[in-house]
Amino acid sequence: MTLKQLEIFVAITEAGSVSKGAEKTGITQSTASQHIMGLEKELGVRLFDRVMGGVLLTEAGKLFFSRASKILSDCEGSKATIHRYLGMEDVTLRVGASDISGSWMIPEIIPLFNKERPKVCLEVSHGNSSSLLSRLINEEIELAFVSGLFDDEVVLFEQIGEDSIVCAVSPDFRKTVSGSLSQAQLCKVPLIAMEDGSGTQKSVYEALGGTWINKTSLKIIARLGSSDAIRRALLNRAGYAFISERSILEELKNGELVAIRIPGVDIKRKIYVARREGRELSPAASAFLDMVRARWCAEKSGKSERYL
Length: 308
Prior knowledge:
By secondary structure, this protein is of the alpha/beta class.
C-alpha cells in the first residue's frame, strides 16, 4: 500500500468516477484502475461498485475512505510542519547561556533577530558553563554560549567574543586602596567566588595557576551563582571578587567599585558557542548563529562598540 494508491482512491471517491479521479491526480485512467486493483488485491476486498456513470464506494470502501482521508490529511499536515520549520515560522529556538552571555550578549541580539525572524520564539536557559554543556549533550538545547573551553569530544566550540575578568572591591570596604594587591595580600582578603562549574571561576583558577597561589590559599567567604549577585555583594562591601569587567562597567565608571591590579595576574577569557558534533543545526539556530558571528566580526574590526 502506497500513499499514491491512497491519493488515487480518495480522488476517485470524491470525483465519483475513475476517469475524473485519474485526471485530478495527473495520470491515465488505465493507470488509476491498475492502482485500485492493486489496492483491492492487497486488502482482499472490493472498494468500489461500478455503476452507470461512475463508481460508488462499497461498505468496506466507506470504512477505508475515512482512514485513507485521515492518513493523507496527516501527511499534508506533516509537510506543512516541515515547511514552517524550514521557513522559521512558529518555531522555538532553545539555547543556553552562561552568566555573561545571557546578561549582555544575547539581550543585545534579540531585537535584531526578532526583526529578521519575527516568527521564531527564542527560549534561553541560564546556568553555569558546565551545566549548559550537559544540557547540550542531552539535546535539550541546540546552542550553548559558554565562557572557556571544555574537554569534550562530542562538542564543537567556536569563539564568538572576548571578556576581561578583574578583581573588584568597594572603595568604602578598603579606604586605603592603592590600586593593587600583591599575590600574598590577595590570599588574606575576604574573597567572593563564583560557583564551581562556572566559566568565570575556571578562568580565574587557570590564571592563578601561573602563580604560586592555589585554591586553598584563597580566603573564600562565599560562592555565588551569578555576576549580578557578586556585584551586589561587592556594593554591600562584602569583600573582594573576580568578576567580568563588562558586568560592572557602570559601577567602575561612577566610582562605586574599583578594579584592583594584582601583579602577575591578568585574566582574559574567550566566549564560545558550543554545539553538538555531527548534528545539523535547525534553520533558526543557523540564522541566530550567523547573526552572532556577524556581530563578533564587527567588534573585532572595530565597527561595533556593543558587546558580543
